[in-house]
Amino acid sequence: MIIVMKPYATKEEIANVEKKLVNLGFTTHPIYGEIKTVIGAIGDKTRVEASNFSNMAGVEAIVPIMKPYKLVGKELQKEPTIVDVEGVKFGGKELVIIAGPCAIENEEQIYSVARSIKKSGAKILRGGAFKPRTSPYSFQGLEEEGLKLLHRVKEDLELLVITEVVDTRDVELVSQYSDILQIGARNMQNFRLLSECGKTQKPVLLKRGLSSTIEEWLMAAEYILSAGNPRVILCERGIRTFETATRNTLDINAVAVVKELSHLPIIADPSHGTGNWRYVSAASRAFIAAGADGLIVEVHPDPDNATSDGPQSLRPEMFDDLMKVLKPIAEAVGRVL
Amino acid sequence: MIIVMKPYATKEEIANVEKKLVNLGFTTHPIYGEIKTVIGAIGDKTRVEASNFSNMAGVEAIVPIMKPYKLVGKELQKEPTIVDVEGVKFGGKELVIIAGPCAIENEEQIYSVARSIKKSGAKILRGGAFKPRTSPYSFQGLEEEGLKLLHRVKEDLELLVITEVVDTRDVELVSQYSDILQIGARNMQNFRLLSECGKTQKPVLLKRGLSSTIEEWLMAAEYILSAGNPRVILCERGIRTFETATRNTLDINAVAVVKELSHLPIIADPSHGTGNWRYVSAASRAFIAAGADGLIVEVHPDPDNATSDGPQSLRPEMFDDLMKVLKPIAEAVGRVL
Amino acid sequence: MIIVMKPYATKEEIANVEKKLVNLGFTTHPIYGEIKTVIGAIGDKTRVEASNFSNMAGVEAIVPIMKPYKLVGKELQKEPTIVDVEGVKFGGKELVIIAGPCAIENEEQIYSVARSIKKSGAKILRGGAFKPRTSPYSFQGLEEEGLKLLHRVKEDLELLVITEVVDTRDVELVSQYSDILQIGARNMQNFRLLSECGKTQKPVLLKRGLSSTIEEWLMAAEYILSAGNPRVILCERGIRTFETATRNTLDINAVAVVKELSHLPIIADPSHGTGNWRYVSAASRAFIAAGADGLIVEVHPDPDNATSDGPQSLRPEMFDDLMKVLKPIAEAVGRVL
Amino acid sequence: MIIVMKPYATKEEIANVEKKLVNLGFTTHPIYGEIKTVIGAIGDKTRVEASNFSNMAGVEAIVPIMKPYKLVGKELQKEPTIVDVEGVKFGGKELVIIAGPCAIENEEQIYSVARSIKKSGAKILRGGAFKPRTSPYSFQGLEEEGLKLLHRVKEDLELLVITEVVDTRDVELVSQYSDILQIGARNMQNFRLLSECGKTQKPVLLKRGLSSTIEEWLMAAEYILSAGNPRVILCERGIRTFETATRNTLDINAVAVVKELSHLPIIADPSHGTGNWRYVSAASRAFIAAGADGLIVEVHPDPDNATSDGPQSLRPEMFDDLMKVLKPIAEAVGRVL
What we know:
Helices cover 35% and strands 18% of the residues of chain A. By secondary structure, the first copy, chain A, is an alpha/beta fold. In chain A, helix 3 packs parallel to helix 11 and helix 10 runs parallel beside helix 11.
């Protein structure tokens, strides 16, 4: 790290910082400018302890040099990670499309969606059994009954399934029924839940938090990897900004940034990222063109009567159209759909 | 709610919306403008179901009229709630100051801080035993050992104590040791944790999420109240914006807005809200002047060697000075410190 | 508009609001709910005057129903506007690519870029003569000398040119040399400059402000149209958010939203939208896939020695590669490049 | 500045960066870590040119060490600047309160407000003659007629006056009538306007831009100072965030940050900062407690019929109450009102 001293810091102030660095096992490399001195510190220390210098007399700022993550970064692993879920591969040449309703509502609904999305080419069915809702008075999901329905669909239709886990106490239960554990945006920094999912052998889809920087998102993934589970798929789903014309602002740049900083695969959620079915196709096309490894799209047979997220759900026929539109774009960027 | 139809929506489109409303138990009141028609709908329905109309042909927007919260709002309770924690009252004439270290580190540290803040006039000691940290490699807290230390201080020094709970599985444990359950910013929409805390008899300090609107914050409090626990104290701790000169942007307006919309008490966290001890005094003065019911301030005997949040911690003597500065401001706004 | 009264507003309060509405020429349509009354008001009034009601006793909120813009919206003009600049058409089937350096630096530089981008297929050359710079100590542009250089390139190489105007006093001067007037992000709400450009016969490229909502952006365009100039091209160039991994956050949703709300063409600026040449290709692909009508891309023969925006400039050979990659994506969405 | 090389950058890459630095007149100080090398560069160069290194092979990031501003910072001037406007001093022990309507509407209105605010203790009358409005269809101000009215009030009632200038072409005109030139939030980075005001002898009130960092705000002030005018007063008026309960989010931390970084005085605008008269008192109290040097408050004799900003305007009697409430808070922080 680099410690920037205030203008005209005294010799004593500089010496005190150096002394503390040395005591902590760093070697120090001061550079004396006309106005400011900066001290380079080399050693195996994390950013957190570095913050202890910022209170010292004469210190203006601390500049970390090393990235705070290790396992998710490219320093230890240069080639992209391919997350293989029973033969469906995230991060390979073939794009992976996940589709399905926001919430599992009943047998008819989930079977109907599952059949249609499979026909259109989706490989994985999504469906929420535990729903994190802003209001305590909203539908909270079918819970275990929903998980069982999802599992039956999986077996009957030979589709992989994904569902969200919202409580550390449910990780084991959800793992029994779901092929992938989904961690939602509001839980991206629920560190206990991250660690708990990290202890399973299930792949984890990690959504970006509403107000999380890309670095914080990678640090959340680091929690899962450092707990022993390397199979993490990142999912950009829009961040919160001042714009209110859409539910969230999709950070299209996130794909290229993540691909530069990390080896993990990244997909996008155009449904939450827009909040409006009219914009889902444009967002989907954009993310595939930008290099995303797949999509997770909300599809509902009857959006007007959905228990949640109706306004952003595609009808099955719209989803089928979308898949057709995406095909040539995928090919234009060297991918297969 | 009000349903705004698109310009020149057809008679049939309008009729379909009215029909659906009537089927759901609403009475409808259409207003025909020259270009747009709006339909007023009266009935006992929540905002969520309203979203099912936004996909219908001819519909432009849905405008909810009723606030989504009930128990935290002023419609059912006009007079301010006073949260009484063993005689210390949040929301009364007397301000409540909570102080202490970010994390409990060892016996000497926590006793030393506790003694000094008590002498300066703080009524409640803070200290984290379970720490939510951005990095898995950072100090995560002393866990149960920390809780026990906190409890010993409480008994020995006759101070109330508050500590954070980060996992549904720990709610019962933390309740045994702490007088108040603290829910941190990153868990403000951990709805399971909210419900679990709502089932206890402990007062809950609910911090505002980094990117949560005031309405979402009140909805999070509604989760706790609707689970049966009316003793919620709100805590503004800064929101995330584009400004990087401070760790967060303290929303000073939140005090007046919350006081207008809700009967719950609200305090502020100037330490996380600034991220820099140099700015803690100004922020503290501002919140007391704006009408906050108290503060929660980080104090550490040796910030340079703190395991976390050193840069934003006051030394005990600075905290003592702060308390003296706050006194006349409290009086200027009709409060007592 | 709709006026929402507070819960249990008195009859007198309701009557006062109705009286004021009637005096202002509205007809009123009150809807009495159990708890709240809302008053629908029909008449030819703008949003601004509506704000005068929000102070009245018993009033909770004002909900405007009509969009605040007229000329840029789709109510008066449903078909897309095609802005024809000497035969180059923004908003038609063919995409328009603008390319060139951030700033015109000297004859050699601008001729060299112009030749290469023309060869790669760009139709319009960009180059700043008046540069709005954050620091007064940075290079501020060649001013009129730059305009003259740009004009010579235009005549010699038969390329259209675009350059930014930053001062009402320069509008006439810039109009003499440039085919399109560019209004930068920081001037999006420089209303005098908008009006002045609206009085010319030149097409105007209007960049979105760093923190402007799409509605404010359309209102800025309305200034130009209402001054008599219908030839406005919108340009998404990224908004300011908390994310610091990129210079700005490109709002990919803006394309679909603008296409729904307005008939004006919209292009994107992947250079300012990312701030990093490594991400320019991904962003460009995304915007074309999302349906943008073109791009404005920074290209410099020697980015390492550029006077400004070097880090986000493509070298000519990279730009050539980009054009090739964009071609099949354009075709996949029914466009031509 | 510090140049951070990528992990395992080659010797040649490091040598190339060093060579370029030396050619530009820097002395270089490389520090070789195990994984990354950083190069300290000492010399008299600005941040802008530094950006030319970020494209070089092997370079990861550039970290500027010196602040980009000179004249507004504390390195050259440690003691606070006091801006003296005909005896009224911004930045001294006495607080300065500016009050008046958003827009000058007519003789009766402006005289009536002026008399009342003077009686309540305000020293300076505000009133807009040129109004920057989001909509071209809104009232745009009385222009020169308004300036003349303002000037008559000034002479008749012996009050200082301030009004906004929105166009470089008006700077001379406005200077004839107004004691202080106000630059609004939307023009904070209208660099030509900044320079033009910098060439006058008039004090300038510089509002913070809606999405401007404190550093950018100080750089805008640097434009004025570097053009020769040292009399700048900063004004925090709220920034744009995701929160919609208030018109803007007041950055209360800005006072302490500005006081640490700059010698310029800073006041606050609680009217635009809240957008709601109900919250103006709380915000005013907060800023005085935090150490602001004054306030600018919107006061209107009849807010319900104001041509603009009615909802955030205080009635004269409310303003009088506010002044009384602020007095003891000012005293509590060592100031006089």
